[in-house]
Write a structure and sequence with these properties.
The chain is an alpha/beta fold. The protein is built from 8 helices and 5 strands. Strands 3-2-1-4-5 form a 5-stranded mixed sheet, sandwiched between helices. It is elongated. The N terminus is likely disordered.
Length: about 220
């Protein structure tokens, strides 16, 4: 159990699943996770991490349970010692398919880029036509070091991306809400309307566009 700043205790993930797979001959084990399925704006971001078993940072945990400062510090450590890949799937692509299909597409692209022997995937679904064998692990970001690392890399990347987008599209609070449906985001939509980065297939945005079309 690790104490993370002033936060409540957060259970750290471990490398036991990866170690077992490596012992069985799966030398390159990737952990894959996504961030940003729920927001009203911005891409969904998928990351994959492959660790050297001899060089794994301490205190890896679900990114949502870490402070921004802890996440940023860990992301730097992960990138310094691991192979990693980050994939964005745009709001436009999300609208063409749906958020689940877009997320699974991103997972496939991450795996193709890293070419692992085995994938540990957060959640309960494995993408079709994945390039390797895989296991889906519910709440895997709290269980597997590699998945936890992927969640940290993905979240720090996406939070920074949304903060950058907020400078081009101020008034929605993306620098602090990362595109989620907060009051600040709702007020921004009321005052400023829908941007090219909004997910038009998501109900709150769809409803605004439908109302505008009736005027």
């Amino acid at each position: 159990m690790a104490i993370l700043g002033s936060q409540s205790c957060a259970m750290t993930a471990d490398f036991s699943r990866e170690a077992g797979l490596i012992a069985a001959g799966k030398r390159r084990v990737v952990g894959i996770d996504e961030v940003g399925r729920g927001p009203w704006a911005g891409p969904v971001v998928i990351a994959g991490v492959i660790f050297d078993p001899e060089n794994i940072p301490d205190n890896l945990a679900d990114s949502k349970k870490l402070s921004p400062a802890k996440r940023a510090a860990l992301a730097m450590k992960i990138k310094a010692v691991a192979e990693f890949q980050i994939v964005e799937i745009s709001a436009e692509q999300i609208d063409k398919t749906n958020i689940l299909a877009a997320t699974l597409l991103g997972m496939r692209r991450v795996a193709e880029a890293l070419n692992p022997d085995f994938a540990l995937i957060d959640g309960n679904k494995i993408p079709d036509d994945l390039c390797c064998a895989a296991e889906a692990i519910v709440k895997g970001d709290g269980k597997s070091s590699s998945i936890a690392a992927a969640s940290i890399v993905a979240k720090t990347y996406r939070d920074r991306l949304m903060a950058d987008l907020s400078r081009d599209f101020p008034g929605y609070g993306w620098e602090s809400n990362a595109g989620y449906g907060t009051n600040a985001h709702k007020i921004g939509l009321q005052n400023l309307g829908v941007t090219p980065h909004h997910r038009r297939s998501f109900k709150p945005i769809h409803n605004i566009l439908w109302k505008d079309s009736q005027n």
